[in-house]
Amino acid sequence: MALKIFNTLSRTVQEFIPLDPAGQKIGMYCCGPTVYDFAHVGNWRTFVFGDLVRRYLSFKGFNVQHVMNITDVEDKIIKRVRQTGSSLRDFTNQFEQAFFEDLKTLNCQMPDQTPRATEHIPDIIALIEKLMARRVAYRATDGSVYFSIQKYRESGSQYGKLVKLNFEEMRVGERVKSDEYAKESVADFALWKARLPEDGSVFWPSPWGEGRPGWHIECSAMSMKLLGTSFDLHLGGEDLAFPHHEDEIAQSEGAGVQAAGKPFVKYWLHAAHLMVEGKKMAKSLGNFFTLRDLLGKGYSGREIRFLLLQAHYRETFNFTLEGLQRARVSLLGIDECLGKLAELAGSTTAAPAAALTRQVEQLLDEDLNISGAWGAVFEWKTETNRQLAAGNLNSAGAAAALAAWNQVDAILGVGAPKEQEVPAEITTLVEARQAARKARDFRRSDAIRDELKSKGWVIDDTPKGPRAKRA
Ligand SMILES: [Zn+2]
């Protein structure tokens, strides 16, 4: 079965065919975090989506090389470094570490490489030199180096491959030094920013004088260094399509480093925005959540991951706290079903039952139809519960069902809940209740049950004996 994905370059759903003639190796680049603060839940939607793509490609048998950059020099970072008085490295390190911890909390697989911009300054300079040599870049009077959109277009290249740009209506030819700018003012963008007094000690020497790289050039330099000048997949949030990704294409293809007819990137995938409680996220609206804010409210990484993975990646998704509550209930339903299967299967092992995996694969092959895949998972759960209740499953059947779930979960990554730790005091009470029951002292056993309840625990009498569960 072939995977089809929506390629922003062609604006159509296309079959995914790797550049590797053997059809095996895939290079995948995801724009990573700018480490000046904790990533918010909108960022996490994109990163969890990237993880889904990676896991699914691995499931399909491809050998994925996943690169995610760490932007550790940038306008906002420099501002914070100045405000806090710490060194660039000390400042960015804390947020880089937090980012990796959060990635783990959401059960995202670590990218194979996480290059830092500050450790690739020579690669960045070498790429700018190529652009200078081809005359699509120039040094302006302010000492900074800019990419010339006009020269690039005159060389027969197209600027505006990902987003439609109307050059007639835009102010072309003006220069913009900041990394983020609006579509209405397409302009020559900075590749190298000349050192300013407010940059403090954040600068590097270059052939054009001391300064620092622009944001866009770092992704071109690092992606091509690690994945080659032409690679398969580039992912990011839809807000990055312009100008960031458009500029990445211009810089990478403008350097003339690809073999004839080969693009910088074959497939561009963009994840849609996230709304929170029906609105665009904003600190002033009180709907701005980092992952840590949500953990602080008592939600788990798997509940948050589950919710972030509910909607199709090209649909705007409304993330709500109520949705997180529903996610908790849905996951509990899955966990309960898996628990019953595990009990029935015991130590029996079996090959996975094929139906669920096949169904999920068919759905994900169609431009990663994740909501369809969840639908299949919940139908499977309902049917499995029905079979269990009817006594239609034996231990081999239960083991086959569990193995199927494990295959599917290798893609979804919601995993199993952490084994609940039962405090010793509770275990002692459970044992005392069991002893009382054996002695037919039901008054005492009921009293112990009530005591457990008052401590927030209930007893689940399973065929293997009583087990304490959180009420
Ligand atoms: Zn990028």
Question: Strand fraction band?
Answer: 15-25%
Would you count the extended β strands for me?
16
Count of alpha/pi helices: 15
Largest sheet: 5 strands, mixed
State the shape: elongated
Key phrases:
471 residues; alpha/beta; 5-stranded mixed β-sheet; 4-stranded parallel β-sheet; 15 helices; 16 strands; 15% strand; elongated; binds zinc ion
Describe what you observe in this structure.
It is built from 15 helices and 16 strands. With 471 residues, the protein is α/β, with parallel strands linked by helices. α4 packs across α6, α6 packs across α7 and α10 runs antiparallel to α13. The longest helix is centred in the C-terminal third of the chain and has 25 residues. The strands form 5 sheets. Strands 5, 6, 7, 8 and 9 form a 5-stranded mixed sheet that branches. Strands 4-3-10-11 form a 4-stranded parallel sheet, with helices on both faces. Helix content is 45%, strand content 15%. It binds zinc ion. The site of zinc ion has 3 residues, from loops.
What is the topological layout?
Elements: E1 4-7, E2 12-15, E3 25-30, H1 41-59, E4 63-68, H2 75-84, H3 88-105, H4 121-133, E5 137-139, E6 145-147, H5 149-154, E7 175-176, E8 188-194, E9 211-213, H6 215-227, E10 231-237, H7 241-254, E11 265-271, E12 274-276, E13 279-280, H8 291-296, H9 301-308, E14 317-319, H10 321-345, H11 354-365, H12 370-389, H13 395-412, H14 424-438, H15 442-454, E15 457-462, E16 465-470
Parallel strand pairs: 3-4, 3-10, 7-8, 10-11, 12-14
Antiparallel strand pairs: 1-2, 5-6, 6-8, 8-9, 12-13, 15-16
The structure holds zinc ion (ZN).
